[in-house]
Amino acid sequence: MALLLGLSLCSCELNTGRQESSAVPAYDGKDYVEISTITAEGENPEEFAATYEPMQNFDSELSVPTYVTKVDDTYFIVDCYHNRIIYSTEMGIPLNQWHIMSSNLTQPHTLASDGKVYIADDTENNRILVFEKFDGKFINTQSLYNVGSRPHYTVYDKQTDTFYVWSSVTGELYCFRHPADSSRIYLTEIKKIPELDGIYVRSFSIIDGDIFFVSGVSQSGQAPKIYRCNLQDLSIKESVDIPEQIAGMAQITTIGDYYYITVSTDLSGDQNAATIIRTGDLHELSSGNYEDIYSDYFIGGGTPYYISEVDGTYYLTEHRLKGHGVWNFTCDEHGNITNVTAVY
C-alpha cells in the first residue's frame, strides 16, 4: 500500500514515530523560558500524601471523555466536561469505583507521563498541571500558567525527552522538560507555525520524527490543510489539501498500514459531519479516496475524538452518544478492526 512520503508502518501497531538515534542529552535546568510554580501540596508532597485520601469518582457516566491512557498499572480517563481526570487499576469497572486524580481543571483534554511526572493540559485556564505519585497517590506539585490559548493536546516524546503541549488556536507548541535528577518542570522553548495562528487545531502527531498537525477550522474559513513539519523548528515540509466535509479533524494516528483520522466537524463546525476515516496515503484525502469506517464499526452518529493505544488495544473516546463514551478495539494482521466493545 502506498504511504505518504514513503512512511513504513508496521502492521497493526500504533506508530509512535520515534526513530532510533543517539540519546538526547539530559536537560540541565539551564536556558529556560520559565520554571514551574510549586503548589502548596508540592512544598512537602510526602507529608501531604500521608494524610491525603483521594476522592472516589461520584458519577456513573462520563461527560465528553477525550482521552484514555495507561501508565504503569494505572488507567486514566480525561473526563473533559466533568472537569476532572479519573484513574483506576482496572478498566471496565463501574465509573463510580474509579478515583479522582484531579478536579482542579476546566475542560482538560489529555494527560501524558514519562513515568516520573504526569502533565495535564488545563484547557480553559490556559495552564498545565504537573502531578507526581507519592504513596500511591497523585499529588499536584507544580503548575505553569499562560500556556498559549486553550492548550489542547499533550504528548511526552521519549526520543527528544520532551513534553509537547499544543496551544490550539495560536499555532504554538510549548516544550517542557525536567532534569534527570529532578521532577521540576521547565518551559524550555515555544515553537510557532504562523500558518496555524487563528485556526482551531485540535492535535498533532509525531510520526517518523516529523510532526503532523491535523486540519482545523477558523472563523475566516481558511482552506483546510494537514501540515507535516520539522519537529525541531516547525518549518513546513509539506501541506495536504483537505475536503471541507472532513476539515475539523480531531486526530491523526497510524495503525498498521493506515492513517486513522477522527473528524469532529466539517469546515462550518457542524458535528453532524463527525466520523472516522482511514487511508493509506494522506494525498488521497483531497480526492475523497478514503474509507469511512465509523458506522461500520462504531455505530456512528456521535463525535469521535482521540484514539490511543494501551497494551495492544486501542481506545477511542467520543461524545454525543449516551453509553458510548469509550470504545476499545483491536486490529488483526490484515488491518481488519476486531473485538469492538463499548466500554463506557
Give the structure's gist in a few sentences:
With 344 residues, this protein is mainly beta.
Explain what you see:
With 344 residues, the chain is mainly beta. The chain has one domain (4-342): TolB, C-terminal domain (Neuraminidase). 4% of the residues lie in helices and 42% in strands. The protein has three helices and 26 strands. It has helices at residues 40-43, 45-51, 294-297; strands spanning 34-35, 37-38, 65-71, 74-79, 84-88, 99-102, 111-113, 118-122, 127-134, 137-144, 151-157, 162-167, 172-177, 186-192, 204-207, 210-213, 225-230, 236-241, 248-255, 258-265, 275-279, 291-292, 303-310, 313-319, 326-331, 337-342. The strands form six sheets. The chain has a five-stranded antiparallel beta sheet with strand order 1-14-13-12-11, with no helix packed on it. The chain has a five-stranded antiparallel beta sheet with strand order 2-10-9-8-7. A four-stranded antiparallel beta sheet has the order 3-4-5-6, with no helix packed on it. The chain is globular, with a radius of gyration of 19 Å. Mean pLDDT is 93; it is low at 1-21.
